[in-house]
Amino acid sequence: MNSTNKSKSSIKKKFLAVLLPLVIVFGGLEIGARVINSFLTSEKAAARNFIFIPGKITPSESGALPTKPNISVDWAASEWSVSVNTNSFGLRESVDTELKDVQVAFFGDSFSFGQGIEDDEQYSDFFAKNSNFARNQVVNFSYINGFEPEHYEFYLKSNPALAPEVAVVGLYLGNDLYSDPNETFYDPKTNQLEFLGRSVSATGQLLNVPSSLRWPWSFGNSWSEFSKLTATLISVSKYRENLYKPGMSIPNSPNSVELERGETDLLKNRAITSLTRINTLISERGGKLVVVVIPQSYYFGTFPNPHLNDELKPIQADLIAGQNLRKQTLETCKVVGLTCLDTSPWLTADDFFLQDGHWNAKGQEAVGKNLAKEIANLAVPQN
Predict the structure, then answer these.
(1) Beta-sheet strands, E only, within the chain
(2) Superfamily of domain 56-196+249-377 in the CATH hierarchy
């Protein structure tokens, strides 16, 4: 063998010596990521099995229900382990109630759905137990993860048979006024609703649409399980803005400094304008809208909270004492004629999960009982 052939053979061996370990390592990462991704999107892991058309929701009787019907799944995190069961309408309710028979309709996302608590510990349950309404007349339509008033408006407009005496909408100040509307396209005139930069998997997981992502995820997520897993982990970290192209909405992003400080014009905020339309809609159907204002956990102690901008964390105490989003929201409610109930006086630090930031069962009970008293005082008709 001449020197040229020997040189080529040596280069080939060196190339294979480098390439083969890389293939093995990458193959192992892909297999491992596929197993993890499969678990993350499994029905057992996905207590929130939305039944939306991927990327776009069209009006229908079942187009905006929270979960698949008749499921029973386990749902666990570091601070809690609960079960989620749904009825034949896909609601986290033990009985089926036709829309026309609903007297009190609850709407909201994770707080109203009951993240971390059992099926019968939602604040709608405690409300029902402490009100004059029959239990089957009180129905919770809440769903979890990334929803805000425009989604409830969509559902109400899609279901004219739903004409409750009272509609209770949970308004979480963490993402309902900022990041969730930024992820949503909604045309109230045509009642068209879409997720921007997101889609929904067959098992109900909200997924990042590759076209909204920066390179290399915009390329890698279309073929690599490891890329998908990496993007998923980054999306729940403080570095999530690095996933997205400039100008794209960032899921679950912190509120802007101006919004949190109560310095924006809430009269132009999409969540508020949607609530005013819902208020008119419910009134036209002979009912009353009650908005439950849900401040972030940091108002009650030194809890970690993903929606508080890093710039404001050092002045958290001053923010709570001075002008802020909670106070501005309540002031704006009065201006636009919304009945808004502040949950702050009803809650203490003991009513929250330490890390999760949601109400525990004690907090859900406090809100439910106080809400029943407040609605009774509003002279809302009760059976």
Answers:
(1) 56-57, 72-77, 80-85, 104-107, 138-140, 166-172, 184-187, 192-195, 198-200, 206-208, 288-294, 340-342
(2) SGNH hydrolase (3.40.50.1110)
